[in-house]
Write a structure and sequence with these properties.
Layout: H1 8-11, H2 27-42, H3 62-66, H4 90-124, H5 145-156, H6 161-172, H7 183-198, H8 205-219, H9 223-230, H10 239-257, H11 266-281, H12 287-298, H13 306-309, H14 313-322, H15 327-344, H16 356-363, E1 394-396, E2 400-402
C-alpha cells in the first residue's frame, strides 16, 4: 500500500472522533483530550520507543515518556537521497535500496500518524483557540503535539486552587469499603496530586499520606495495620510503602473475613450497641438524648427524631430489612426496636398534676407485689456521673448540663424545679456542669 494511503483514525484509533470542546478549553476538557490522544497514539503499533507503546511518544514530551519506557522515543527523520557507491555488488545495492525504502516508509508512517493526531485536536477545539499555531496555507497545526498541549494547558488549563481544596475535602470524606480494590483509594489521591501541580500548589508526600490515612481510619477496619504503620520510621513512610502496606493488610482481612468482607464494621456496631445499652440502663437521662449523643460521638449516619422512637414495630423491622448492608445502622434499629417494646410495656409516666388514674392503678395493686406495673421513679443524675455526655450547653435541674433546659425536661425527678439555670441551680444536679 502506498505511503499515506492508510486512514489511521478509522483503522486504528480508539477514539475515532474527538469529544467536542464547546467554548474555551478548561483543565478538565484538555485532560480528556490528552487521554484520547494517548489512547489513539498507543493503538498504532511501532518499534519506536521500545516497541511497547506504539506512537505514544508523539503525544508525551521526553520527561513524560521516560516514566513509561526506558527507551527514548526518537521520531525518524526523512532519509538522505539514495547513493550506491561504485564497485557495489548487486546484492549490496539491493540491500541499500531496501533500507532506504524502509526508512522512507517509517518516516511517512510516523508523520501521518502525527497528522491524524493533530486533526483530532483541531476537530475537538474551536479554530479561534488554535489560530496562532495553524499554518495559513495548509490549515494544519505546525507544532508537534506536546508543544500544542503545553500551550493549551498554560493558556486555558490552569486549575483554581479552590477546586483543589474542594477535591481534597471530598477525598477526606470519601466512603471506601475494605472489600473494594485499593486502587479505588490510590488513584483519586494521585489524581489530586496532579491537579494540585497544575494549579501551582503541589502537594508534599506527607499531605498525600495524611489524606490516605484519613480515609483508612474512617473505615474502622484497619486498626492493626494503622498501628504497624505508626511504628515505622519517618523515612520509611512513603507513598509507595503506604500502598503496599495497606494492600497487604487488606489481604489479611480477606483471609479472615472472606472475599466479600461481610463482617466489616460489625465490631464497631456491637461496641456502639453496648455503649447505648449501658447508658440507657442508667435511666437518669432521656433515652433520645443518649441515642443522639452516641450517634454524634461515633459518626453514625441515621438521625433520630422523637417520632422515630414511637414508630411501630413493623416499621422498625421494615427499615432494618432495608439496610442490611450497613451493620451499624442495622444494630441501631434493632436496639431501637428493643427500647420501643420495653417502653410500650410500661404504664404512662406519672404526671405531677394529680394523675388520679395513676394513683388509682397504684392503690388497686394489693396482690403482694407492690412493684408490679409501676414505672421506675426518675432520679437526678449524680454529680459525679462516670459516663460521657456530648451536649452540655443547657441546664436541667434533674440531669445537669445537657441538651435541654429544666422546663423542657420530660423525665423530671421528684422536686424538679423548672426555673433552675446554670446561674441558679436551686439544688439541682451538678453533673457535667462547670465549677
Amino acid at each position: 500500500m502506498a505511503s499515506g494511503a492508510v486512514d489511521y483514525a478509522a483503522s486504528y484509533f480508539k477514539y475515532k472522533t474527538p469529544t467536542p470542546i464547546i467554548g474555551a478549553p478548561s483543565h478538565k476538557t484538555l485532560k480528556r483530550l490528552k487521554q484520547e490522544l494517548r489512547a489513539n497514539a498507543s493503538s498504532v503499533e511501532s518499534d519506536l520507543g521500545g516497541g511497547d507503546h506504539g506512537f505514544l511518544g508523539l503525544v508525551l514530551d521526553d520527561t513524560e515518556y521516560a516514566k513509561v519506557s526506558l527507551t527514548a522515543f526518537d521520531a525518524p527523520e526523512y532519509p538522505n537521497p539514495l547513493a550506491i557507491p561504485t564497485n557495489t555488488t548487486q546484492v549490496e545495492a539491493l540491500s541499500l535500496r531496501e533500507q532506504h525504502k524502509e526508512a522512507k516508509r517509517a518516516y511517512y508512517e510516523c508523520k501521518n500518524v502525527e497528522k491524524a493526531l493533530q486533526r483530532h485536536v483541531q476537530d475537538a477545539i474551536e479554530d479561534k483557540y488554535l489560530e496562532s499555531m495553524v499554518d495559513e496555507d495548509t490549515q494544519l497545526i505546525t507544532e508537534d503535539i506536546p508543544e500544542v498541549l503545553k500551550y493549551l494547558f498554560d493558556v486555558y488549563g490552569k486549575v483554581p486552587s479552590e477546586e483543589v481544596k474542594q477535591k481534597e475535602a471530598e477525598l477526606r470524606t470519601m466512603s471506601y469499603h475494605p472489600a473494594d480494590p485499593m486502587i479505588l483509594l490510590h488513584n483519586p489521591i494521585e489524581k489530586l496530586k496532579k491537579m494540585a501541580e497544575s494549579a501551582g500548589i503541589p502537594y508534599t508526600q506527607d499531605q498525600l499520606l495524611d489524606i490516605g490515612l484519613t480515609v483508612i481510619r474512617n473505615t474502622r477496619d484497619f486498626e492493626r495495620a494503622l498501628g504497624d504503620w505508626e511504628l515505622l520510621q519517618p523515612r520509611n513512610k512513603t507513598w509507595d510503602r503506604f500502598k503496599k502496606h495497606f494492600k497487604e493488610a487488606q489481604k489479611q482481612l480477606k483471609a479472615i473475613r472472606g472475599p466479600t468482607m461481610q463482617q466489616a464494621g460489625y465490631h464497631h456496631a456491637n461496641h456502639l450497641a453496648d455503649q447505648l445499652r449501658q447508658d440507657i440502663e442508667k435511666r437518669d437521662t432521656d433515652p433520645l438524648t443518649v441515642i443522639q449523643s452516641a450517634m454524634e460521638t461515633n459518626s453514625v449516619a441515621p438521625s433520630v427524631a422523637p417520632s422515630d422512637i414511637s414508630m411501630s414495630t413493623a416499621s422498625v423491622q421494615q427499615q432494618a430489612n432495608s439496610i442490611q448492608g450497613d451493620p451499624i445502622q442495622l444494630e441501631m434499629l434493632k436496639l431501637l426496636q428493643q427500647m420501643q417494646q420495653a417502653m410500650f410495656s410500661q404504664p404512662p409516666a406519672r404526671d405531677n398534676n394529680n394523675d388520679n388514674s395513676y394513683r388509682g392503678s397504684q392503690n388497686n395493686n394489693n396482690d403482694g407485689n407492690s412493684n408490679r406495673g409501676r414505672r421506675r421513679q426518675n432520679r437526678k443524675t449524680p454529680d459525679n456521673a462516670s459516663y460521657n455526655r456530648t451536649k452540655t450547653e443547657k441546664y436541667c435541674w434533674t440531669h445537669g448540663a445537657t441538651s435541654h433546659d429544666s422546663a423542657q425536661c420530660r423525665t423530671k425527678a421528684q422536686g424538679h424545679q423548672d426555673a433552675a439555670t446554670f446561674n441558679n441551680r436551686m439544688g439541682g444536679s451538678n453533673a457535667f456542669c462547670p465549677p
